[in-house]
Amino acid sequence: MKKLFSNQWANIIFIVIILVMLIPQTRKPIAIVFNKLIAFSPSVTAEEEREMLESYDWTLETKDGKKVNFSEAKGEVIIVNYWATWCPPCIAEMPSFQELYSDYGDRVKFYFISGEDHETTNNFLKRKGYRFNSYRMLSADPKPLNGYTLPTTFVIDKKGAIVINKVGAADWNSQNFRNTLEQLLAKE
């Protein structure tokens, strides 16, 4: 009898989880929490497998409508993150980016790229208390960068080599990633 009762509870819990995932209002918060739980420090690409940026010619637009050319970051350590306000894995990794930005915003160039209008992204960033900027693309991104899958993040060294190409959520504030950034910043 006890085994039968525990099996029924397991079935009830399973059905409740399925129902909660079907309801749009609860699906997104659950997906965000799940993505935070599975986000690990991103892996560094082996030096012999790293791709190089073909160009730094890329025009972006700030929230104020000002045009910025990506070439201004040439010779710097750069983080490019493609994201959207409706993307649960993107939302899940944003707190770790904010912590990283707070500590490295003056030494690393951060580019958060969204295809959404500035009003949408700015309202989202303001509501969440994030202090970094979001950009919109005005020209095609330089190859091999692409943001077809969200989120996608590229970490680029001072010479234009893509050190990390991460698709999906990650813990960007991990000690492991901070060590990688410190190594990249120390290189000439």
Molecular structure report:
It is a single chain. This protein is an alpha/beta fold and 188 residues long. The chain contains five helices and seven strands, in the order ααβββαβαβββα. Helices cover 40% and strands 16% of the residues. The chain is globular, with a radius of gyration of 20 Å. The model has no long low-confidence stretch (mean pLDDT 89). It folds into two domains: 2-36, no CATH class; 41-186, Glutaredoxin (3-Layer(aba) Sandwich), CATH 3.40.30.10. The chain has a seven-stranded mixed sheet, covered by helices on one side. The protein has helices spanning 2-22, 24-38, 88-104, 118-128, 175-186; strands at 59-61, 67-69, 78-82, 109-113, 134-137, 152-156, 162-167. β4, α4 and β5 form a beta-alpha-beta unit. InterPro entries: AhpC/TSA, Thioredoxin-like_sf, Thioredoxin_domain, Thioredoxin_ResA/DsbE_sf. It holds the Pfam family AhpC-TSA. GO terms for molecular function: antioxidant activity; isomerase activity; oxidoreductase activity. It comes from Salegentibacter echinorum. The chain crosses the membrane at residues 6-23.
